[in-house]
Request: fold
Amino acid sequence: PLKTLTPTTLSRMSSGSKQLLRWLLAPSSDSITGFHLHTDAQYWEKQQPAPVWGEVPAPAAILTLEYLPGSPFERSAEQHGVHSRLVFHGSAAAAWHSIVRTGLAIGGAGGVKKANGAVFGDGIYLSGKLEAARSFSKPGRGWRWGGRYRWFVCVAACEVVTGSSGVKRIEPETSDYWVVADPSLVRVKHLLVWPSNGPSKLNWTALVQLGAVGFLVVLLAKLLQVWTQV
Reply:
């Protein structure tokens, strides 16, 4: 907890730890002015008159970001226009602190790991389908000293500029993917949070049983082959 960070504690920290702590506690991106937490699903319905939940349940919490006017995104939006609906981006829970601080980034650029390939070219990948974006979200641990959830997953609901050559929309009638080649053309508006059971675990019992069945099938096939040759 932050209240344990006394001058004595800080004096014992390495320079690298102090830099990390400063980065964690420093204000977010220059254009972010605040956050608002909502736990009422009706709030989202007011943001989007016809929410695109699909097979995904309503989020348990929604964190709304507020920005200063005059950002590069807003200048691009004024010039080209913004898509009428929010689009979604899924990522590992551990990545959201950095994303909120510095914005979405193109995988493989600036030291950002390319997590899921680039089938449609380099860029920031989003989808108009929430269930598609949520499938790319990996669970993370909540805060053990009072967090709402032990494990959670998170998806960003984003504003995206249209009419720019840096944004392309693919298969709008099905998966509805968006690929944004310029990070200034997309902005996180909400973080949608769901509780999770944690990372998926292998069912070793089922794997052993499946292996045993496979072995028996191969053995029977070999016996049948020998029997037909006699």
Observations:
- The longest helix spans residues 204-229.
- The radius of gyration is 23 Å.
